[in-house]
Amino acid sequence: MPQVRNWDNEQHVAELAELWDVDELTIPHWAPPTHAMQIFRYAEHGSIGFLWIAGTNPAVSMPDLPRIRRILAGEQTFVVVSEAYRNETTELADVVLPAALWAERVGTYTNADRTVHLSEQAVPPPGEARSDLELWVDYARRMGFADRSGRPLPGWSQAEEAFEAWKAASKGRPCDYSAMSYDKLRGGSGIQWPCNDAHPGGLERLYADGQFPSDTDYCESFGQDLLLGSSTSQDQHKAMNPDGRAFLRAAAYQPPHEPTSKDYPLQLTTGRTVYHFHTRTKTGRARQLDAAAPSVWVEVSAGDAGRLGPNEGDIVSVSSVRGELEAPVRIDHGRDGVVYIRSTTAATAAAPPPTSSPSPPGTRSASSRRSKAVPCGSFLRAGDGPSPASTTTASAPPTAMTSRRPAEPATLMPYRPVALPPRTVPDASVDLSRVAARR
């Protein structure tokens, strides 16, 4: 909930309802926030008939991709996507709304270290592209959303007005923005929350007084069972006498849901590379970044490679009960028994459909960041050179790490300003046949 409020605290819900002038029942608070996989399960069954996706690419990033893509392409849910570039998800949408990028709109951003920055509009968005704020406010106006007094909801339409409303909602909460303003944010290199009457210039270090936001009436969550995930009740939390103390909870080791076996002797894990973010929707279009890590590869330890046979750059097959992927090998300094694939391209690499039904509850597919058991892989054919893995990161071959120099010329090209054509935006499109079908 906004400003780290607790969905299970009736007073927190009442505060928001009063602030927004809406009925408390219009604020979802009857269950914990819905997990992304559960949202797609609801969409799969048609319980969610309208799904608006903004700022993410689930047709690549989610586990169990064949199922996710079937859900997005199905008739049971109408899918709208706000996006600045065409990607795998826009191709499955019923409606695509061209969205403005960060330099084409006004707004604030909060870093992981709590520093709030103001980003001014540098250039106008091309074509019909609009900021997410404009799109959502326009939608609200067309839908006729109103508060209890009959006024338009939300009661603002400009970025600075939205920031003022955000400040009002944050007052008194841990992430208090109430003493910030656009003028203040223009005066330096950002302000860290909390920024209020007690800390008008922001606060660099939290909890220096030994007090934590854990009081039952104030905390964001009452907690949950670390093994089962069941929620702790308000009374149970209060019985622990939090009184501003931090809770440090230990958990016993739990083995993976799918341990290794004779047929599946290796663990597959996924992660990121420094040269790409998420699904490469933008970084894959940057010439230097794409050249540094252009396509998928499989990282295998030197020990496993010596035992299994592939050489650097050879094409191998890695498979699980859910699917199979073919990619060149990077022999690296990793741990024996573990195979690594970068998640930003593992999902988009050519691969046959899964060899089993969708994941059962409580498991995740190999494209998640949790290790999975996979077979040792099979050698397919000799490669035509080194793998496309970077030689300047942790993916460098052992010789490069030992010598502190790349084993072959680094693939990252120096930055050279180039004249690029204007950015094109996705066409605003509607599949009328699917609209008719929904009606």
Descriptive report:
β4 (107-110) and β5 (115-119) form a beta hairpin. The chain has a domain at 266-403: Barwin-like endoglucanases (Beta Barrel). The strands form 3 sheets. A 7-stranded mixed sheet has the order 12-7-11-8-10-9-13. It has helices at 10-20, 36-45, 58-61, 65-73, 132-143, 159-170, 182-186, 234-239, 287-292, 302-308, 343-346, 398-403, 432-438; strands at 50-54, 78-83, 95-98, 107-110, 115-119, 191-192, 266-271, 298-301, 315-319, 324-332, 338-342, 372-374, 378-381. The protein contains 13 helices and 13 strands. It is an alpha/beta fold. 23% of the residues lie in helices and 14% in strands. The relative contact order is 0.12. The radius of gyration is 25 Å and the shape is globular. Residues 346-376, 401-421 and 430-439 have low confidence and may be disordered.
Percentage of β-strand residues = 5-15%
Radius of gyration: 25 Å
CATH topology of the domain at 266-403: Barwin-like endoglucanases
Strand order of the largest sheet: 12-7-11-8-10-9-13
Salient structural properties:
alpha/beta, globular, Barwin-like endoglucanases, 439 residues, 14% strand, 7-stranded mixed sheet
